[in-house]
Amino acid sequence: MQKILQIKEFEVLVIKAKNSKTTKLSICPESHKVQLRSPWRMPYSLAQKILEKNYNKILTLQRNLEQKIDNINFYQEYSSDMLSIAFQSIDSPTHITQPAPNKIDLYYNPVLSKMQNIQQIRPQLLTKIKQVCMHKIKEEFLFVLSQIQPFEKNKVNNIRIKNIKTRWGSCSSKGNINLSIKLALLPNHLRKYVMLHEIAHLQQPNHGPLFWQHLSNLCQENAKILDRQLKNYHTDLFFLL
Question: In the prediction, which pLDDT does 154 show?
Answer without folding.
Answer: 66
